[in-house]
């Protein structure tokens, strides 16, 4: 029986690096992120969650997905970038998982994807 492989989007981020560390040694781990993971043992695919083809390539051969990627760098993004990354990016990841036949998905996030800070003006959807 072959060992399963889990894809962790955002695996180089604050939460992602701890999730990757917890998984290493238990299963094969593939990280999809803009920057390399702290753990050299994890297979790394660089890319944006907005890039359908890159996301799909990263999912090949994976049996599970932990989706943690999001816009959360502390800077106030413009409305479009915020929505594209946190909404459309997540949509892209979940659609790619469905196409790849990945049936086990965990999605987690911080409050950064749920809304802007209280001192930031609200944005309107197109």
Can you summarize this structure?
The chain is of the alpha/beta class.
Terminal residue distance:
49 Å
Structural class by helix and strand composition: alpha/beta
What is the total domain count? 1
Strands in their spatial order, largest beta sheet: 3-2-1-4-5
CATH fold group: Rossmann fold
CATH superfamily: NAD(P)-binding Rossmann-like Domain
CATH class label? Alpha Beta
Describe the structure.
The chain has 126 residues and is of the alpha/beta class. The protein has a single domain, classed as 3-Layer(aba) Sandwich (Rossmann fold), CATH 3.40.50. It contains 3 helices and 5 strands; from the N terminus they run βαββαβαβ. The chain has a 5-stranded parallel sheet with strand order 3-2-1-4-5, with helices on both faces. The protein is globular, with a radius of gyration of 15 Å. The relative contact order is 0.18. The model has no long low-confidence stretch (mean pLDDT 87).
């Amino acid at each position: 029986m072959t060992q399963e492989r889990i894809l962790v989007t955002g695996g180089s981020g604050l939460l992602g690096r701890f999730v990757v560390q917890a998984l290493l040694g238990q299963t094969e781990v593939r990280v999809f992120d803009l920057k390399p993971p702290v753990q050299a043992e994890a297979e790394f695919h660089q890319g944006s969650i907005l890039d359908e083809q890159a996301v799909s390539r990263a999912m090949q051969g994976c049996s599970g997905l932990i989706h943690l990627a999001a816009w959360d760098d502390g800077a106030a993004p413009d409305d479009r970038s915020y929505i594209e990354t946190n909404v459309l990016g997540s949509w892209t990841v979940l659609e790619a998982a469905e196409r790849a036949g990945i049936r086990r998905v965990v999605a987690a996030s911080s409050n950064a994807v749920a809304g802007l800070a209280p001192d930031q003006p609200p944005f309107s959807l197109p």
